[in-house]
């Protein structure tokens, strides 16, 4: 039987990357909401992310989004982040906001548009050289809205050709991570709609190309933990984008809609060797905080992942394996449920205190006065948000 003490002993391996854009203004498809204290620069985003790590010990790196986080000197930005106590992580490309990409980017039938999109990714690789980032993450909005609009097979061929050129530019320690999404903004077909397409494209590229799984990018009812298992089994799971969904790509706080799903996913991550700093699997948040305050939203998110990881580590794997071998369906299910329903929050509070962290990071943030300070300091200028 795994004990809470055993589970807590492994929690020090947990690291969750936070996205710079989570600290900017966001909203629904209809409205982007402004809030007091919102960062105006990437430096202010990093300061907010550093506060999350200071209070939780769980978020040592920050993902960048280009061009939203462009600066003149990325080496200086790396040094600035280090002074705050965080590192610069994944670099995310953007080929979905320029008018030229209306009919596709890496898959476009227009050679000039493809050239522009490929060059953007090569620029991202140059940024990664300066920041020390390992992963280039690519999510494409490419697809079509109507049958016959474009040649679907031709688009796959063009995607492969574009990715090959980007892949050839990777440094020795760098990786390409290809994300998928089953619909939106393309509604008839999406060029990278599922894990199989991403797997096929990355497999053809080579050993430095992996799949990114966004937990909000699947059709309702999809068994996401099965996909996690399969990609780990195939050695192609590179990273997660953690969020939560009720209907589509809602980008809500991870674990908000279905904490049991998050628990099941983390079980497969641990079971498949994807947990820990040497696993090669990056855990990252990809969320937008529309109604809630942004920094507490990120704190709650990393704590949710930590709690479900602790519960997953409680599964009595020996007893589970025996129940599975003997065909005892209800016993096996009960072993899962026993771990999931264990309240680990008091033990986690003690664990945090033993590491010099606040027992309740949410309360600690509220008492810190940080939000009041940035509300007063960050007046004027252009707040960061979608597209900025």
From TrEMBL:
Domain of life from the UniProt record: Bacteria
Coiled-coil ranges (or none): none
Entry keyword annotation includes rRNA processing: no
Keyword Manganese: yes
UniProt-listed SUPFAM superfamilies: Xylose isomerase-like (SSF51658)
GO molecular function terms listed in the Swiss-Prot or TrEMBL record: isomerase activity
The entry's keywords: Cytoplasm, Isomerase, Manganese, Metal-binding, Rhamnose metabolism
Protein name: L-rhamnose isomerase
Organism in which the protein naturally occurs: Arthrobacter humicola
């Amino acid at each position: 039987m795994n004990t809470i003490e055993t589970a807590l002993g492994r929690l020090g391996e947990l690291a969750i990357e936070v996205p710079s854009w989570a600290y900017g203004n966001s909203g629904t498809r209809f409205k982007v909401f402004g809030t007091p204290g919102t960062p105006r620069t990437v430096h202010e985003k990093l300061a907010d992310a550093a506060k999350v790590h200071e209070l939780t010990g769980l978020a040592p790196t920050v993902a960048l989004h280009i061009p939203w986080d462009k600066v003149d000197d990325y080496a200086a930005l790396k040094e600035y982040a280090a002074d705050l106590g965080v590192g610069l992580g994944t670099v995310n490309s953007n080929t979905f906001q320029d008018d030229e990409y209306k009919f596709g980017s890496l898959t476009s039938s227009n050679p000039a548009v493809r050239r522009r999109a490929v060059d953007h990714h090569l620029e991202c690789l140059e940024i990664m050289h300066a920041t020390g980032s390992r992963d280039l993450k690519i999510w494409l909005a490419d697809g079509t809205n109507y049958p016959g609009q474009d040649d679907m097979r031709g688009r796959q061929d063009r995607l492969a050709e574009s990715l090959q050129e980007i892949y050839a530019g990777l440094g020795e320690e760098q990786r390409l991570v290809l994300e998928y999404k089953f619909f939106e903004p393309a509604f008839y077909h999406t060029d990278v709609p599922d894990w199989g397409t991403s797997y096929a494209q990355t497999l053809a590229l080579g050993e430095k190309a992996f799949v990114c799984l966004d937990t909000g990018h699947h059709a309702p009812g999809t068994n996401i933990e099965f996909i996690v298992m399969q990609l780990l089994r195939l050695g192609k799971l590179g990273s997660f984008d953690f969020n939560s969904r009720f209907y589509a790509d809602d980008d809500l706080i991870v674990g908000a809609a279905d904490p049991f799903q998050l628990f099941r996913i983390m079980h497969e991550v641990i079971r498949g060797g994807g947990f820990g700093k040497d696993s090669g699997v990056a855990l990252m948040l990809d969320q937008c905080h529309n109604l809630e305050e942004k920094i507490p939203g990120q704190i709650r998110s990393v704590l949710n992942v930590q709690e479900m990881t602790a519960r997953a580590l409680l599964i009595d794997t020996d007893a589970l394996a025996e129940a599975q071998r003997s065909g005892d369906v209800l016993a096996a299910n009960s072993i899962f449920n026993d771990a999931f329903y264990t309240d680990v929050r008091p033990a986690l509070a003690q664990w945090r205190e033993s590491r010099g962290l606040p027992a309740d990071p949410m309360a600690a943030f509220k008492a810190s006065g940080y939000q009041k300070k940035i509300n007063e300091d960050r007046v004027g200028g252009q707040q960061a948000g979608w597209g900025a």
